[in-house]
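Re: [help] complex structure
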Amino acid sequence: MTTMLDSSPISVVEALRGDRSTRPLIDIASAGGLRSLLEDGIFEIIGAERLETPLVVRTSSLQQHFATTDLAMSTPGRIRGVLIGQLLRLLSVGMSIDHAFDDAVAAWRGEVGTNELITQLDTLDDDDRARLATDLEAHCVTLTRALGEIPARWMPRSCVRATQRLAGGSVVLRDVVDLMIGTSTSEVASIALFDVTTSPLGEGAERSMRYHALMQTLRTSVMPLRTCTFSSATGEIWIRDVDYELLARSVDDVLTSVRDQRSVR
Amino acid sequence: MTLLHRRLTKSDLNDLVSGALADPVQLTDVHRASLSTRFRAVSVPGHRRLDAWSVERAGRSGNAFRWSPGTARRVLGNASLRRMATQPASVRDAVRDELGDQMLRAASGYSRSGSLSHWLASAPHPVIGLVTAEAVNWATQLQEIAEWLEASWAVPASDAYYDVASARTTLRARRDLVVHNDETRTVVRVRSGSPGKSAGPGLRADLTIEALADHDGLAPVRYIGLWPEAGVCLSVDGTMSDLRSGARDLVRTAVAQRRRGALLAA
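Output below.
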């Protein structure tokens, strides 16, 4: 399902949750099979060798297979991405945003203290800083309009991390889901994953959505209900129901990334 | 050593809880006196604090502690879940109430400098938002795990602390849920990230400290460590050999810490 913000009268969260009566029963059987597919595929690539430095797969590893210029990976693009993530976290607990840029920067500093990206933010001149603040404000308006209010009973959690060690630790899968709603204790599938990007949606976004669903399945052994990606640049949202086929495609994506990384070592 | 490794699923967790020993092991005054003697032999100028984290890091000190949304989440998240047991509310409301109480404590002058209340009272509005988000994450995760459990559970009011007599040493064991089964108890501890090679010794240290901190010296029948980010759990049984190993690891950590301190001084 693809929805454009201007054509959607309902909030993203409502679209993600959908009609409870049509949700399937939770699937706790598929995780083991997916793990086996991954282990077997990795064994075919790296064999029984134990790598000293593990191959690490993240959503960013799945984005491009060829060299292109991605503006989202520029320094202002990365800072913007981090800041919109902070704003989403504040929105997820019902905080009001007064000044998007100032609030996001204050939250970021409170979380990490100092790091390389914050140092780069501090070295921006006044023009660049003002441009970034205006840009972020626009993204925040788009995100806030689409998200609506997130009810507490849907148990929203932000910045949910997952790590999986495969092939005895030779391959490590890492993931961070921007927002997760629903519970794994219900008898029907109810977990929905929401990812926000400040870039327009493309093929890479599709892979990321699948990867989030795969990682969530491996982590909890429960298949999520839906996965989605929202672009705060265009207001476009892609929502996919999670099924075994989608997860198997993500396994292929991961194996392709492992193969690529292995071949350049 | 009785280290078990399982995936973190409802059935595996309940199997770990129900499959624990039937009779708890008891530590006596002789055990306590013996531990005290060993720690006194490894004296340090100041007061020493040891926990599972220091055992896992072989006594190496990490970065200086500072309050942040990440370090505040467990205290607030656990307190919120405890609050929800008596006053039904959403996780978000329980976290907000807990934050309100913490800030009230600071406003009424009951918090000391460096405490969580003190830090929260001076934190800017967006940081409070992020603290809320982190605490909601923690409490929601712990609530899900607790709802999986088929036996009755409780969120303990604090971690387990034990002062080793005459050795200027305080031991601390992390505990997030205590599961009661007749006369026995199983302790559940939640950690972020994924377990490292020394996760087992860390769990044994927590087991030993928990037993020492118990008034009657009764050890939990099993200590379960959960790593939800990795989706795995490890457990150690409350046997005498695991308790002894835990105590040995704690003393070894004290020795390593003293050696490191002596090297720095030189």
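The beta strands of chain B are 4-7, 48-51, 152-154, 160-164, 169-173, 177-181, 184-190, 222-227, 232-237.
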